[in-house]
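User: Hey, quick favor. My workstation is busy. Could you predict this chain's structure for me?
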Amino acid sequence: MGFPHLPGPCSAVATRESVCYHPAKFAGAPARGRGKSHAVAAVQGHATIGRVIVSKNASISSGIASRYATALFELALEADALDQLDTDMNALRAALAESADLRDLIVSPVHSREVQGAAIGAIAAKMGLSELARNTLALMARNRRLFVLPHLAARVLERIAAHRGEITAEVRAARPLTKTQQEKLARALKAAVGKDVNIDLTVDEALIGGLVVKVGSKMIDSSIAARLAPLRHVMKEVG
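Assistant: No problem, here it is.
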């Protein structure tokens, strides 16, 4: 499902993979999701603040996100809606990775909580996110917590994977992997660790070639950059 064409300098049409918004579209609009749903009540303990706090400390963002993630996961579990939540969180991660406009929306202190709430509500509705996910995003907007959204999605997906007896492999590749390549990698990792493995792929051209795979505390680095590092060290010593 695509998003409507929004006015302003951003001319892209928003989809699940590409999100575009313009603050003027939502200026003066009331924040959506004012009613306290079950999801809202579950995470209402977070105090509302009057400005965005964009922390560079990942542990702080992760800590805040974990509290929302726990409530969101438990509500979805009670409602037998983990599959939908999994779909919602993967859609959000894809949108955040693709759209600089969406990333700006969730972190910029320029946007009021009303603008953030209206914009994220419209985006979530067009993406077809569940009511549970939409209510949580509305609450996060009101509490100025949207900046932890990437961490929230990651924590929720980790909880879902653990519940299913799966683990997540963080994979960095020099170039995008095809679906077939990812499936082969997942099967190889399953044979190594004895569990189903979800691939969390990031493209990092600095690797030059190969892969860096992290599963739990184990790191496997087969990248060309890693193999060249000792050679560079020796060359510096000789030079």
